[in-house]
Each structure stands twice: as C-alpha cells, then as structure tokens.
Amino acid sequence: MKILLTGSNGFLGTYIRYNINGKYKNLILCGTTSEVKDKNFIKFASLYKDIDKLLENENIDCIIHSAAIIPKNFEDATYDLFVNNTEMMKNLYEFAIKKHIKKFIYFSSFGSMSNPALLDVGDYYTMSKIVGEHFCSMMSKKGIYAVSFRISAPFGEYSKAKTVLNIFIDRALRNQDLIIYGTGSREQNFTYAGNILYAIELVLTKDINGTYEIVGEKSISMLELAKLIIKLTNSKSKIVFSGIEDPQENYRPRYSFEKAFKDFGYYPKYRFEEALERYIRWYKNENSINI
User: Rounded to whole angstroms, how far apart are CA atoms 264 and 255?
Assistant: First the structure.
C-alpha cells in the first residue's frame, strides 16, 4: 500500500512517519514549509496546489491528511485561515477523485465546539475542520473510503507547542511551581499520538466511512493533571493557585470512542499515565533537562 502523508514535518506527521507499522514502509512524505531529510519527501507549493503535477505518475492508495494551518488560539483564527484550510482540502479532494485512491484519513478537531453533536462551531479554524469532514463525505459518495478523526488535545513525542501539559511538564522537571487558574476543575481529554497512530493502523485494514471521535479513555482536571505530572517526574514543585479566574472553569468535555470501537475496534492502546510517562521521558531528553 502506497500512502501519502501530508504535514509530515508537523507534530503528528513526524510521530507517524517514525512509528508507523513496518508493512507501510512505502510512504511518501510531504509538506509545504520546512523539508524533511528523507529520500521520500516531496515539498509542495502552498496549499498543495501542485499536487496533481508533482504526483502525476504516482499510484497512491491512501492519503493521511494531517496538515493544517493552526492558529495560536481560536480568537486568532481569521477568515483567511478558513479559506486556506478549505482550499488545501479541496486540492487534496480533487486529486483523490482524479487518482481513484482507495482510502482517505483526515485529522479533524473538536475545536471550539462544546456540543459536537450540534456542530456548534465558534471560530473559523473549527469551521474549516468541519468543512473538511464534509469533503470526506463527498469522497465516500464517489467510492473512496474516507474517515474523519475528531481528535481531542493531541500530545506525545515531537510535540513542541506551548500547551498546558507541556508547561506543567517543563516546570515540574525544573522543580518550579505549577500555576493553577480558578479551582483547577476545568477538564481536558488528552489523546496520545500513539493512540492516534493505532487508530490509523486499524482503519487501514478495513473499508469504512464516517466521522469518529479518537480520544483518550477519560478526561482529567487541571488540578489532577498537575498532581500526576509532579508524581511522574518525582518533582519538588508545588501547586500554586493564581487567584485568577479560569474562564473555562466549568468546561467538562464528554467524548466517546464507542463508535470507533464498534466499527473498527479502536480502544486507547496506551493508558493516559503510561503515555504521559513516555512523553515526559522524551521531553526531558529532548530539552536536556537533568535536574
């Protein structure tokens, strides 16, 4: 099976190319920004506008679309970002139809939705991800097995974004205070990159269509997350309440991988604590923290 991996120089793309099952070694890596030092890497023009030209003679079986223009926060998601993400998906959609590919795996997001069943989109970035899901639906009607993975708060090796999880880990490894906003009761469902890859490998063996929630076993509060990270790092850090209100104090995401389990057997391969331990080891080595 020949697989095209977009965004292969991003966080999830990097994790996938280093860890994907050996039987999928026929992997074409691609991106539109910095290059990957790999003989199978192809650098495309912005938004994959030249994909049809550069891959004219390639017979692609599957596209894993992990590339996206991601804002720093939802408030920074402009209309232009929406247009560009949609244009990127359109270019890949047209290529997939023309080349009669068999499978398309798309990385979507819950984004700003608090009730995904109602598609209560609150920003242009989230809107662009939902539009991508509709492109997948159109592919399905044209004979392509297309799935959308709604992924919640992905983390893992090669992630360098300044997330709450990364901030807590970094400060704990340096024995610095972990700052909590509000009461620390806000929750998040963190999804390990290894579990996302596991879902990909399962889907590659089945012919299915649809949108699936690829998430962790359960959500965790910020206070419990801080305590767990201190425990796993054997840190001397203290938890300090900032006294500043958390605008998302009552946020309680409720996701379910039940549909994914029913249709293709997905269940988080790595428990959260185990995944966090793996990531902490990588983070410590990557940043040469020896404290």
Answer: 17
